[in-house]
Design brief:
The chain is α+β, with helices and mostly antiparallel strands and 280 residues long. The chain has a four-stranded antiparallel β-sheet, with helices on both faces. Helix 1 crosses helix 4 and helix 9 crosses helix 11. The protein is flat, with a radius of gyration of 21 Å. The protein contains eleven helices and seven strands.
């Protein structure tokens, strides 16, 4: 796995392994779980402290020990991320309609404008330029929710209707999304992880797939695959090119993830052990 920012690795750990566990987690256990990915104790402590200051994590002290848990903000982010990773709007029937989002946000609210743009990208919208964004999906509800949350709903309008011209749908898609680049990323993912899946499948069949190995491989799998919801608009089949490795990547991810889930969870259980009691 290529070198990654410590914060990104912490997000992957919480999102994949700790999201549904009653928390908070002792910092020593977090250090042990992140050690296989090249993070030193100091790097983990620094990342956790910074994420707490940013509001993604909450910290508490129990005697001389520090514990971390997701904040409500961090939990919401990872729950939405997990939904988009494991249950994206793939394969939906398309009625031929488009959602159009238009906004004109004042320069003094540039930070909110940038955050809205990030949310639109996360929802799979594509930019036509000039504050106009489109999606073949009906994203009215999440767009309005994001605008209200950011306090810019008064500067935004959402429409749903037909595209009457002048470009054909393929040309319109090409203006908004670089599907060729996404195709390359998906093909690379399949090429990188198919051998690992086959090796893990064979090892599991022989009873030789260790929990720690499963933990590391599942972590690396999810850490890389979680990038796709940031770049893939999950277009309906009618708008996809003839060659689309996204389907093969999703199938591989689902099979590999299922294979690794149980033994990897057993490894995390072995590290976390019994909850550390609160000092009297």
């Amino acid at each position: 796995m290529a070198t990654q920012r410590p914060q990104d690795l912490v997000f992957s750990l919480f999102g994949e392994y700790l999201l549904d566990r009653p928390g908070p987690i002792w910092v020593g256990d977090l250090i042990e779980l992140l050690a296989p990915f090249g993070l030193s104790e100091n790097a983990v402590r620094t990342a956790l402290s910074r994420m707490a200051r940013k509001g993604w994590l909450e910290t508490e002290r129990r005697g001389r020990r520090s514990f971390y848990d997701l904040s409500p903000r961090g939990r919401t982010l990872l729950e939405k991320g997990a939904e988009r990773i494991h249950d994206p709007p793939r394969g939906e029937r398309w009625d031929g309609g488009w959602t159009l989002v238009s906004y004109s946000i004042p320069e003094e609210d540039r930070e909110a404008r940038d955050r809205l743009r990030d949310r639109l990208l996360w929802l799979g919208c594509g930019s036509l330029g000039g504050g106009l964004w489109i999606s073949p999906h009906d994203v009215e509800a999440p767009v309005v929710e994001a605008a209200e949350e950011l306090g810019v709903d008064g500067f935004l309008e959402v429409f749903r209707g037909d595209h009457l011209g002048v470009s054909d749908p393929g040309a319109l898609v090409a203006k908004c999304w670089d599907l060729e680049a996404i195709e390359v990323r998906y093909a690379d993912f399949v090429g990188a992880h198919e051998p690992g899946y086959r090796a893990s499948l064979a090892a599991a069949g022989r009873g030789e797939l260790s929990p720690e190995t499963a933990f590391v491989r599942r972590f690396e799998l999810i850490h890389e695959y979680r990038e796709f919801p940031l770049i893939d608009p999950f277009l309906p089949q009618a708008l996809l090119p003839g060659r689309w490795s996204g389907h093969a990547a999703a199938s591989l991810f689902d099979r590999y993830h299922e294979l690794l889930t149980e033994p990897a969870d057993r490894y995390v259980d072995s590290v976390l052990g019994e909850p550390v009691p609160v000092p009297a």
